[in-house]
Amino acid sequence: YLTENKSSIMTAEEYYQQGNHYRRQGDFQHALECYMEAIALDPDSPARQAKEMLDDILGFYCKDYYNP
């Protein structure tokens, strides 16, 4: 998918799409980072809603429920 290349400038849409890619792979930390970059570049980006949903999911997840 998109590769991290520090010499190229990514758009808000590219960060959003890369965040979606990471999210689908279960890499929530990188997904959040990409969504925040997208929001910084474009406050009206759909990444805002995606980040809020991911925050809700991660806030709901409680490891104590899975420990016997």
Average per-residue pLDDT, rounded, comes to 83
- The string of secondary-structure elements, in order, is HHH
Number of E strands: 0
Q: Return the structural class.
A: mainly alpha
Oligomeric organization of the protein chains: single chain
Tell me the radius of gyration.
13 Å
Low-confidence segments, ≥5 residues, pLDDT <50?
none
Query: Percent of residues in beta strands?
Result: under 5%
Q: Approximately how much helix is present in the residues? A: 55-70%
Instruction: State the helix count.
Output: 3
> What profile does the largest beta sheet have?
none
> Overall 3D geometry?
globular
- First-to-last CA distance: 38 Å
Describe, in short, the structure shown.
This protein has 68 residues and is an all-alpha fold. The chain has helices at residues 12-24, 28-41, 47-60. Helix 1 packs antiparallel against helix 2 and helix 2 runs antiparallel to helix 3 (47-60).
What do you see in this structure?
This protein has 3 helices and no strands. 60% of the residues lie in helices and 0% in strands. By secondary structure, the chain is mainly α. Helix 1 packs antiparallel against helix 2 and helix 2 (28-41) runs antiparallel to helix 3 (47-60).
